[in-house]
Amino acid sequence: MKLSISLWTMCVLAVAACHHLGADAATISITTPMAPPDWALLERELLRANTVACQEYYDKYYDERGYLLCVERWGANDGPDDAIESVADWPILHMLGAPDSILEMYKQAWEGHLRQYTEAKTVDVPFARDGMYYKEFPTMMDWMHNGEGLRVFNLQGLSDPRDLAFGHRVRRYAGFYMNEDPQAPNYDPHYKIIRSMFNGSRGPLMRKATGLDWVGDPIEVAGRFAAGHGERNYGEMVAHFKDYNDIVGDHPQNMCATSLAANAYLLTGEPKYKQWLLEYVDAWYQRTIDNHGIIPTKIGLDGTIGGATDGKWYGGAYGWGFSVEVPQSGEIAHRNRAQRGLIGFANAYLLTGDRRYIDIWTRMIDHINANRKTIDGQVMYPHMYGDQGWYDYQPQKWNSGALNCYFWTCDPKNLTRVATDNWIRYLEGDDPDFPARALRSEFENLRSKARGMREDTTTPDTRLADDPMRFNPATVSILRQLMLAGLDPGRGGALLHCRLRYFDPDRRRAGIPEDVAALIDTMTDQQVAVTLVNVSQSSARTVVVQTGAYGEHQCTTLLVDDQEIEIDHPWFTIHLEAGSGARLVVNTERYANQPSFAFPWDSFGN
Fold first, then answer.
1. What residues form DSSP beta bridges with 380?
2. What pTM was computed for the model?
3. Which of 215, 219, 234, 253 could bridge across to 143 with cysteines, CB 3.0–4.6 Å?
4. CB under 8 Å to 10, separation ≥6 — which residues?
5. CB 88 within 8 A of CB 472
6. Alpha-carbon gap, residue 400 to 362, rounded angstroms
7. pLDDT for res 113
8. Taking a C-beta distance cutoff of 8 angstroms, is the pair 441, 422 a contact?
9. Are residues 135 and 114 in contact, defined by beta-carbon separation less than 8 angstroms?
10. Distance CA 437, CA 445 (A)
């Protein structure tokens, strides 16, 4: 059937035109000429430049086995998580459309670091003496660092969910927190808690932690390494963690572990993974309600709020009241990590579409900021809570997760919290020059990282695992926003949340096809508008557009030049003739589908 869009534009809608997309897929042909816009050329060049820089970076810092060329150590300063975090954002780069070489490199780095840190052993730290990894997972560490070490793995399913080893690991890792492995009794199903802040493949650490547990074995520092926190010797490294003792019991950052169950559910569709995730997150939801709307940071082994800290809901390491002395300077640093709990609520929202998981966080933001004070004539907002009540007053509101909450809800009430964000201002129509300007700034970032990498004179025996990270050239922030309308997964091992993503049906891979660029300029609760353009003047391209990172949204209708096309599917196909382009208004019902890793031409999963 043919739809006349205008005298010079024609879209052809063919139901079941592509055998690999199933009976309900739609293919729409775009023939309207469009000269390549600046933003489109910048996107394509940025993908290319990223690829070149990542190859140079990988050749410098990794060997042919995928081992990071560094001194292997255990600990929160420079441990196994840093070795793989050095290729963070590479999964996003590939699923955006960078070449398969990016996927191959970060997969080799993942496999290499698993072997490297299974072989690496401690002498003094008791739970890593037989290997820092056991069963291809950290033996036991806190989820600030476990999450960082899973930033790459937790996003591999966006590009390569059918990898056999990935599938085995997804199930095994989730099983560590569902009591499927007798050596890893991390979870108490009666009280619905993860029993310690230190947990992993050898189970929870059920005693107070020491500086040695956090830092690892003694090591020479002065003249050899530039420690990441500025320590001048091993003593200062231990002193950094001297107060990080109270780790028994549950903490919100343990909710980062729900990404493992979410991944397993996305891959298999097995209800047990969703059931466990919701059971654990719902327990935290209720604790937040019971604690007058503020998520507590210490849950005792008996399931009580403030258990083991004299009833102090704000107690424990990384708690609301966790302010410690910096050994080098004597200054006080505030290190509350309650915000990592948002990852758990986000995973529950992804799997259910239930707004209560987001609303509880936005209410908490308002509740905290309601405790503002006027100090020396300036309104100040608290960021910490201790025995003396709210403290650490700052001019900025406590706003952790505000951008995420607006993205998930598109609620005008949540818009006021992020109205000054440049990306949101652009989507609201206030800054039309943002795309080209922001993309150009990414080239500056990329040049700076490449220059730093080339000037780096460290050698493998004077290099810590976290040293290369600052030169990681993967520069995807603006591409993710403009092409996907996507959130930053951050450093906690979160999944990707985005409004649109793309597949190349000709090469049967994730990512936008060669020569195609995409720009999302509008985002509301039920609608996104995207311009797709084929910058090639000689070759046609075909792109599959999916609503949601995991097909969680349903595209209801598509508007092209005011002509409405019924879709009623999580994806549709656009065929772009050479040198053509069009702006599409995609109407969606959000969170209408159960999310899945399945590609449009796949049938596995739920």
1. 373
2. 0.95
3. 253
4. 2, 3, 4, 29, 31
5. yes
6. 10
7. 98
8. no
9. no
10. 13
